[in-house]
């Protein structure tokens, strides 16, 4: 496989606190990679650095071979990296359908064209993706009236409508009805295999990430603690100690 995202010695500090300490990782094109670690281990900070939300202090972030550590968030999104958040970022006063159409402007369509009746392709794509995440019957409901789990599914569909090459998911199963988690995992695997979507996933639900990811990186106290195949990481005593120490 070809390397799609490569981080080398990425460091980020806040005052005297080291959030990311010389983190290096590699995400191969077409793979599903997990990012785990106890709360406060630096996972979301790393996502923020990759997507340009915060500047790094040192190191390198390369996407498709190009340095992006000094790029603006919008430019990184347009290059093909889209993310979701722990708390869904949606427009609660708008319908699920209009959230989708508005989100499509990030990469694919001029904003002014999205709400025109003539844009059949955008509307068809919207319907397909709402169906894909199980919200086809909710498209006319206000996003704010959806359950927390449904809002997260809507945010996932909003990300997918931009046809990202790489999707960064921050705790995608948190708040979702446990009975729906299996279906979400299947959908993400389908997006990976059928659409060629590369995934980097922060997840605290260990059974989920062990089932979903092909390779896992574990952070603790801002440092890379271990990485490898899911079973190997799960059995690593350092990983177990990190989680027990944070309990």
Folded structure, characterized:
This protein is α/β, with parallel strands linked by helices. It contains nine helices and ten strands. The protein has a six-stranded mixed sheet, with helices on both faces. α3 runs parallel beside α5 and α4 crosses α5.
Distance between the termini: 37 Å
Beta fraction of the residues?
Answer: 25-35%
The tally of strands reads: 10
Question: Mean pLDDT, rounded to whole units?
Answer: 87
- Report the order of strands and helices: EEEHEEHEHHHEHEHEEHH
Q: What is the helical fraction, as a range of percent?
A: 25-40%
Number of helices: 9
In this structure, how is the largest beta sheet organized? 6 strands, mixed
Strands across the major sheet, in which order? 6-7-8-3-9-10
- Based on CA atoms alone, the radius of gyration comes out at 18 Å
Which structural class best describes the helix and strand composition? alpha/beta
Low-confidence stretches: none
* Morphology call: globular
């Amino acid at each position: 496989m070809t390397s799609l995202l490569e981080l080398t010695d990425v460091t980020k500090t806040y005052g005297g606190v080291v959030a990311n300490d010389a983190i290096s990782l590699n995400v191969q094109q077409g793979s599903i990679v997990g990012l785990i670690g106890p709360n406060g281990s630096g996972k979301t900070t790393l996502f923020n650095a990759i997507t340009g939300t915060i500047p790094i202090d040192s190191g390198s972030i390369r996407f498709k071979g190009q340095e992006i550590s000094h790029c603006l968030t919008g430019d990184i999104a347009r290059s093909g990296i889209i993310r979701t958040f722990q708390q869904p970022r949606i427009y609660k006063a708008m319908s699920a359908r209009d959230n989708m159409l508005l989100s499509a402007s990030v990469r694919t369509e001029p904003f002014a064209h999205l709400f025109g009746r003539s844009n059949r392709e955008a509307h068809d794509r919207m319907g397909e993706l709402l169906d894909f995440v199980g919200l086809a019957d909710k498209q006319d409901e206000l996003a704010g009236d959806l359950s927390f789990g449904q809002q997260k599914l809507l945010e996932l569909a909003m990300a997918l409508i931009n046809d990202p090459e790489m999707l960064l998911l921050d705790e995608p199963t948190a708040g979702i009805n446990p009975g729906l988690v299996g279906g979400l995992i299947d959908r993400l695997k389908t997006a990976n295999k059928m659409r060629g979507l590369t995934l980097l996933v922060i997840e605290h639900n260990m059974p989920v990430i062990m089932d979903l990811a092909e390779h896992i990186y574990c952070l603790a106290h801002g440092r890379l603690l271990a990485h490898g195949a899911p079973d190997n990481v799960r059995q690593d005593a350092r990983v177990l100690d990190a989680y027990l120490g944070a309990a």
